[in-house]
Structure formats: structure tokens, C-alpha cells
Amino acid sequence: MPADPAGPLGKAFALLDGFAAEGLFPGGVLQVTRRATVAGLHTVGLARREPPARVEPSTIFPLFSMTKPLVATLLLSAVEDGKLALEDPVARFLPGFEAHGKGGITVRHLLTHSAGIPVTPGPEILTFSSNAPFAATLNTLVPDTPPGTRAVYHGQTAFALLGAVFERAAGIPLSQGLRERVLDPLEMSSTYLPLPSEAEPRVASVYAHPSDREDERWAEAVNRPTFREAGHPAGGAYGTAGDLGRFLCCWLGEGALGVRRLLQPETVREALRIQLPGVREGMPLWPGVPSALREADLGPTTWGLGWRLRGDPPEPLFGFGAASPRAFGHAGLSCVLCWADPERALTFVLLTNGTLPMTPALRIRTVLSRAVVEAFA
Questions:
Q1: DSSP 3-state assignment of 226?
Q2: Number of domains within the chain
Q3: Does residue 3 sit within a domain?
Q4: Residue of 261, 305, 298 lying closest to 282 (CA atoms)
Q5: pLDDT in tens, 290-332
Q6: Which residue has the higher pLDDT, 285 or 114?
Q7: For residue 5, is it within any domain?
Q8: Domain with 267 in it: what CATH number?
Q9: pLDDT tens across 230-281, in order?
Q10: Which residue range forms the structural domain that includes residue 369?
Q11: Mind giving me the DSSP string for 230-298?
Q12: CB atoms within 10 A of CB 39
């Protein structure tokens, strides 16, 4: 879909075209809404190389860790429904989890990445065909730090546990809860956890950039039916830019989109508050992070409940660009980023199907975010 060079988003869309032309990813989509109305949507490149298929507005992308805010929203709805509380110990729902000093870890600690268990004890989630056996392995974890004293991004562990907590508390599968409580009310008809076989023809394949040897296994995994069908709550959702725009607009509307209310305003305000003032954040222990950086201090943590806030000073990892300190969002692997800015009534959805090392991926997210904010300055 060609960009309108005369429109306010022309620069941002041209930048997206340029990144694709450089070969940084095969294809992608950027959608922006302003005041809950689509201000622009631009697609570029290929969803699949063989047989060639262009990216369309209806293309379904792997959301990677943008899955986490969807699951967090479901957890918050369960809190409103009285199924669980943020201060509930995880072991209340998952007997045996309290082993090795984890009895004090709560649902809130998992939602804020401050449980002290950021790294898996053995095989990664990619090797499991469903969440339950993976979550069960986490009973063996030994916390690095006491809960609530330090934040480090829990890439796989926290939301695997939260998925299991929801199922035990609500008595229904995570996929059913997400569909009934989040996706259907917002008419997110092209978002899935797990991905059904009938949606496969619309799904973009993921390709690792030659420079990104660390994430090759992710690119291979998310293209396999076993991963797509697993429904991992830490990163197994698939969806479209349009659906995610609706989701973000609901959060900008303090839990409501039009006449449909998903969450109460007080729940949204609590979720979009920095939860751990004064607590410091450490470098995520991602594969490929140089050992010299693994003990780095990233400054005060800006985690809300399932969402990252930009904060002031701004958080350094997601790429919010010039968005306001109240902006909130989440990144996925490489060039996947979604954010909303309450002060500017903007939402930003970037989905691509290529993996890159951390530094160029952060640059792309930041440059595009800045261009979108500047378009409406």
C-alpha cells in the first residue's frame, strides 16, 4: 500500500519502506490511530517469500511478546471478577511453586517482572508443545533476588506462570478466557492464541536476518505448526495491526471502546501506574547480551501491570521515541512494537516478519516512533 507523501505520516511510511528496501525485514505494516480513528496504515514488502505473497492489511503477524499485554488484560479482568487478587501468592494456584523460597512471589510480582526468576531452568518454551508442562518446570527455579526488590524482564517465565494461574483460578482454558473476555468484546476477530489452522494462509512467515544468529531458532519455531498451535502466553499470539489498534484504543479509553467496556477505569489507571517506584531495573538476560552488560543498571523501573511505561527519564529498551512520559506499550521480538500515548491520543502498531540483533531493532523502533509523534506535533 503506497504511502501518501503529502500526508502527515508520509515520512514515517517512507522510513518503513526504506528499512524494508535495506533488507532489514522482508515485510511489515505500520498503523497509527489518532483520537480512536485510523490516521494511516501502510504495508510494505513480502509476508512470505515462497510462494511470494505481499503484506496486506489483513496479514496476520506473530506478536511475540506483545502477547503479554493481552494476557495481562485477561488477568486484570479476572481480578475484577473476583477470581484472584494481585497480592495472591502464585503458590495458592500452583502447589509446589513455593519450593526454593518462592512462596512470597505474587501475581503482581509476575506482572511487573520483579519476581526474581527471569531465566528458565532448562529447555526454552520453544521446545514445549503447550504451556502446562513448561510452567510445571518452573517449580525448580531459585530466585536471583527477593520479590519486588529488582526488576529484570521475565521473557518466558512470568507469563507462562500467569497463564497457568488464570486457568486454575478461572477454571477455563486461557484461550477460551482470552476469546470471551478480550478478543470478542473488542471485535479482534483476526487475533489468536493459539493460531487455528484455518488462519494459516494469512500468516506472515518469519525470517532471520543474516546478522541475527541468536534469534534464528525463534524464526524457525514460530513458522512451525507445533508452536503456532501451542498458545504460549509469553509470546504465542498472532494478530493484525488493525486488531491491535483497537486493543490500544480501548486502553486509551480507560477500558472502553465505544459502548463496550472491557475493564473499569480504576483498573486501567492502576495498571498504567509505575508499580515499583524506587526499584532499579537490570539488563534483560537475553541470549546474545554481552557478558559485560549483564550486570548493567538500567535505572528506575517503569513497569506497570503488564505494560511498560515510557517514564521520565525514558526507559531505554523499547523505543518509544518522542512519546510522552505517560505513553505505555510493549515490544515483541526485533521490530514489533505497540504503544499508546494518552497525552497525544495516539496509538502506534509496528509489525514485521524479520528478526534483527537488539541494536538495529531498537533503532528502527525508535526512529519510526519519533517520526509518528513528530507528524502530529
A1: helix
A2: 1
A3: no
A4: 298
A5: 666 667 899 999 999 999 999 999 999 999 999 999 999 999 9
A6: 114
A7: no
A8: 3.40.710.10
A9: 999 999 999 999 999 999 999 999 999 999 999 999 999 999 999 999 999 9
A10: 10-375
A11: T--TTT--EE-HHHHHHHHHHHHTTTEETTEE-S-HHHHHHHTS-SSTT-EEEPP--TT--GGGTT-EE
A12: 17
